[in-house]
Amino acid sequence: MPCRRSARRMRWLGCYRLGPMWKALLVFVVIAFAGQLLGVLFNKSWMQPERPRSLFSLSSENSQILPQGSCHPHTHVMFLKTHKTASSTVLNMLYRFGEEQGLRFALPVGYQFGYPLPFIAQRVKGYRGPHVVEFDIMGNHMRFYKPEVEKVMPADTFYFSILRDPVSLAESSYAYYKNVAPAFRRAKGLGDFVDNPNKYYEPRMRNNHYARNLLWFDFGLDHNANFSIALAKRAEVSIRRNFRLILISEYFDQSMVLLRHALCWPLDAVVSFSLNARQQMPKGRSSWVGKIAAPAPLALTEEQRQKLREWNALDWHLYQAFNHTFWEEIERFGRARMETEVNLLRNRREVLARACLRGGGQPIEASRIRDKAIRPFQSGLVKILGYELQPGLDNATRDACLRMIRPEIQYKDLLDLRQFPRAQQPPGPIAGGAPIRREPSPSRTGEHLGESVEGERNRILLIQCEMNQQCNTLASVLALL
């Protein structure tokens, strides 16, 4: 009797009539059902791929790691952006962090805060009196004057700046400001200037501050003062009192580790690509190459390098003093710990460079960058390099990568438009988040190191605009051409 009941059930199910094909189909259905059930349990189906996410949103152990200990990220930050010290790269970090956090920037009306005049609070766009409008981040070029800065920034603001060896700074300054500083313009080359600087240097001529003690000048000090130990020490004490951290350009990665721990910022906030870098051409070569050797007009002997230290004795004192302090900070931080964190930062930079940048992350000439909105501004004897984004990026990754390579001028314009949307907008459409502007024409045969007439006119107009505070954006300057 039980056997008959069992036989009826089998006939009802039809199992004994199933051929191999139907049995395989049944097995597949059972496996699929089990897979879906497991997917519900683990909130992830093995049958469907995970949705693609931005590289910057991944919760990897490297991307968003915060400094050890309980600290709160600083959101009130003032960066004294000194000239030719990798400060454009640092400013890009501040722009990115502030934009991502929705912070308010203290922005200049033009691109600098009335430089080379001492800073006054009225140079800040939107300023209406001490602390009437509270700003979070300040970092564009200025000649520092703390009493006026304090009218703009909150009392708990973190002040920091960056220094560079005055010899390499002078080389970069000469290359960039050759046609701006009269002392440089009159010399045949940097070596010619160094051999007899008093022949070319007139202290009272405008823009000659680029030719002597430029760091000292940016800190608001008298760069033409006669050097003395007492004077140098007083300035050093004043800077230590006003700034909580002084970075060193030659040790940029170590500087970024110290900075992110001082600010309690995540790692990605201080990972960067070198911005505003200049391309150099060795003597005797006709084609542009990377940073292998200095161009002939910049080549110096060791004796001339020593002369530069003497000519910039005030800057040299500052650099030596704060370089010593910098390594004391690293000793307190821990050498082994610093090495570990520098490696972490460099590894993350390599990951982002491969993901973000075309060609593995090598900077390229501005004329080769297809998107004109992210071409860097050109000035001086050498070409300023930029980057191209990797094609095919998802929107979130592309936006994050674009923030890392957007040149300073275009980034400032973008933040200005967002912060003051009712203000008059610059002409032209917006591409890549910044106004498209006319570029200086490419270098022509016979022009000194590719310097073009149009590029020179653009640069002169930009400098005049900065000094007279008559324009809101670079686009409005170039529209005059």
Description of the structure:
- The chain is of the alpha/beta class and 481 residues long.
- The protein is built from 19 helices and ten strands.
- The strands form three sheets. It has a five-stranded parallel β-sheet, sandwiched between helices. A three-stranded antiparallel β-sheet has the order 6-8-7, with no helix packed on it.
Brief account:
Helices cover 45% and strands 6% of the residues.
Largest sheet: 5 strands, parallel
Structural class: alpha/beta
Radius of gyration: 29 Å
Residue stretches low in confidence (pLDDT < 50, at least 5 long) are: 12-16, 39-54, 57-63, 281-296, 426-481
* Strand arrangement in the largest pleated sheet: 2-3-1-4-5
Distance between the termini: 105 Å
State which percent range the strand residues make up. 5-15%
Helix content: 40-55%
The overall pLDDT, averaged over residues, is 77
Q: How many DSSP helices?
A: 19
**Structure summary, number of beta strands:** 10
Notable features of this structure?
single chain, 481 residues, alpha/beta, 5-stranded parallel sheet, 3-stranded antiparallel sheet, disordered C terminus
Q: Secondary-structure map with pairings?
A:
Elements: H1 2-13, H2 20-42, E1 77-80, H3 87-101, E2 105-106, E3 137-138, H4 146-152, E4 158-163, H5 166-177, H6 182-186, H7 190-195, H8 197-200, H9 214-218, H10 229-242, E5 245-248, H11 252-263, H12 267-270, E6 278-279, H13 302-311, H14 313-333, H15 335-356, E7 364-365, E8 383-386, H16 395-405, H17 408-419, E9 430-431, E10 434-435, H18 453-468, H19 474-478
Parallel strand pairs: 1-3, 1-4, 2-3, 4-5
Antiparallel strand pairs: 6-8, 7-8, 9-10
Helix pairs in contact: 3-17, 13-14
